[in-house]
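Think of the structure tokens as a kind of shorthand, similar to the way a musician reads notation: each symbol stands for something richer, in this case the local conformation of the backbone. In the example below we present two proteins back to back. Begin with the first one, reading the sequence and then the tokens, and try to describe in your own words what changes along the chain.
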Amino acid sequence: MQCRCNSQRKQGVNSKMSRFCTFALLIAVCVAAVASGQETAKQPLPDVPSATKQEETVASPPSFELPSRARIVPPTLPRELRATERQVLVAPPFSSEGEAQCDEGGAAYFHVLTGGSTKNPTIFKLGHSQDEHLLYKLPSEIPDKKSAFYTACSVTPAGRLWVLVEEWVGEEPKVAAYGFDSKGAVKSEIHLETPARLLPRHFAAFDNDVFFVEGDVSVTAGTPKTSRPYAAIVNGSGEVTRELNLNLQGLQVQKGRIPQGAAVAGRAGNLYMLLPDQVLVVTQSGETLRKLTFSKPDREALATGISLSGD
């Protein structure tokens, strides 16, 4: 763009025109620069390798996986059990005492409350059908002749019932175990060589005729009486093969409270002993395999029963 001025005019006019032309020239230059910038912006930029693209071509480092024990495992949530099948069992009405026991076939065993439930105990087997129900009773001559009193009962995983009886021989009580056959008759009678004045509290029988007995042994006679905890493994001949040191102080009966604890035998031959805050898994040789600790939902809750579905 050109700007021409008339030289014949006066100097003042020439000066004004010169400033005006200079101003107009500046505006024209600015407009041309803006237009040139717009055209340049429309053109694509050359494909120049950038630092970002170069970083993308660099091989990524190998991934690192934490060992399994370092992984955070979420807690197992309680699972609600819902009935998927219903079966009606026909059985006579009865009242029972203590925790019911089950064999691996699903039959339940109850200590029935009768007029002489302590002197002459009755155990009722509730089977899957009416034909499988069965009553177990000690022969009448056993309680009357030996002054025996029912103490506890245990069902082996295979379904054999054993009843533990306290017999008074002279002035000191002895403990005997009576085993029943599948028809409800007494098949075995084993006298346990446990200490005198043993008051059994928990009793568990294994399929190989080995027993676990736990209770208190009276140390002194008279009132008040003192006692010490006692636990042992007894073989099929009644011999004590191992006295167990299981720290069972929490199982001692407190006045006015339901006693805690329970014992059940597993199919693999291990004992599961329930304590107020844990379960001990003990072999027949007396070795403690595991200690399973649990927390009660309420501090005042009592651990009174345990059921085993497999070991």
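Once you have a description of the first chain, move to the second and do the same.
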Amino acid sequence: MSKAIIKEIQDDVARLRSERDRIDSLLEHYLAVLADKIGQEDSEDTVSPQGKVMDDAMVAIYEEVGHPMRTKEMYDLLKKRGIFVPGADPIKNVGAHQSLDKERFYNSEPGMWGLAKWKTDKPVSPVGTPSPVPSASGKAANILAQLKDKGIT
């Protein structure tokens, strides 16, 4: 076999691998959208757009961990849950989604995001140190945040 033919075959293999990776990413995204839709209690006939799925997943993650986190950490947790994050730089895309949804997210410091309901005038401590955010998770964190908003705690 000539070197030219071998080179052509190698180029085809590289192109096909790249295309397979792209298709695998799309498949992961579609499966995540379907899993999210099946898990919803409502019976709408439309599937959530990709961005809404990702944003809803970020809210759920923040409620579970109970504190702000770095954009890269959020991206890693989204990947673990099978949520596809598109773009040339998916980590920046995660930050961009949060910056566009100010009703649900706030930027506590460069590269650090949390739920808007956690926003305080006090500086937020880095992950791993005590922060003004309630340490309870899930529903308990929501209740504590609501009580704090009403000035009860």
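Compare your description with these statements about the second chain. Residues 3-149 form one domain.
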